[in-house]
Amino acid sequence: MRQGIVLGLTGPSGAGKSTVCKLLSRRCPKALTFIDADQVARQVVEPGTPCLELLCQRFGKLVEGSLLLEDGHLNRRKLGSAVFGNPERVALLNETIFPFILKELREQIALLSQSHRVVVLDAPTLFESGADKLCHRIVTVLAPKPLRIRRICRRDNIDEAAAMQRLASQHPDRYYTSRSDAVIRCDGSLRAVTQQLDLLLCRLGLCSRWRDGFQKGWRV
Predict the structure, then answer these.
(1) How far is residue 144's CA from residue 15's CA, in Å, rounded to a whole number?
(2) What angle do CA 92, 63, 95 make, to 5 degrees?
(3) Are strands 32-36 and 118-122 parallel, antiparallel or unpaired?
(4) What distance in Å separates the CA atoms of residue 102 and residue 104, rounded to the nearest whole number?
């Protein structure tokens, strides 16, 4: 059975990945399916999972009281406070959780790629987690920083200073563009973004306007 293409979708916070996913799903609802890496990251730390147990072993002693909530779920706020601003602890956190995420992603991709032409892996930390190695092609979504700040403030109901603090810890645009096969600029009208997506779909062979010229510069 032919396996589908795995398309990695990434980019910094506020760039517009959610908008791109919605537009993609409308353009090719039958050919495409999506995996939300953030959702997978939440799944692997559900109560009773090996990942949660390992997190408690490695980080439980760094917090006051328990690393778990009363219902057995991970206390994300406590964990975040324990690692924030400490590169060594952040590295240990990633070393702990990323292997479990990758294992789950592989399993979902193997299943979904049997029945869909394209599996879109929506992953903000695509490169950091190593999930880019699971993808055939990678697309980055970008937008100017002032626009991203406004989007984050509106989305998360925070002030501009808090939004800027979040962005300060993220990679510059060149980090993404140098590792990607294509870039979607989500800084204009929905029509402009849709036009870029139509070109992308043509490159994937998913629209009737496919032409060989569209493949120029596209890594397979």
Answers:
(1) 8
(2) 10
(3) parallel
(4) 5
Report the distance separating Cα 85 and Cα 38, nearest Å.
21
Residue 70: is it exposed, middle or buried by C-beta count within 10 angstroms (0-12/13-18/19+)? exposed
Could you tell me the two tokens for 119?
């599996």
Question: What percentage of residues in the chain have a pLDDT greater than 90?
Answer: 74
All domains of the chain, ordered by start, with CATH?
5-213 (3.40.50.300)
Cα–Cα–Cα angle for 125, 95, 148, nearest 5°?
A: 20
The token duo for 136 is 């055939």
Average pLDDT for the chain: 89
Q: Return the SS3 of 187.
A: coil
- Which structure tokens are listed for 191? 């029509």
Name, in order, each residue with C-beta under 8 angstroms of 86's C-beta and a sequence gap of 6 or more.
none
In 3D, which of 188, 189, 171 has the Cα closest to residue 180?
171
Q: pLDDT, tens digit, for every residue of 39-83? A: 999 999 999 999 999 999 999 999 888 999 999 999 999 998 899
Q: What is the DSSP string of 167-182?
A: HHTSPPHHHHHTT-SE
Q: How many CB atoms lie within 10 A of CB 153?
A: 17
Q: Per residue in 156-180, pLDDT tens? A: 999 999 999 889 888 999 999 999 9
Give the whole-angstrom CA distance, residue 144 versus residue 170.
Answer: 14
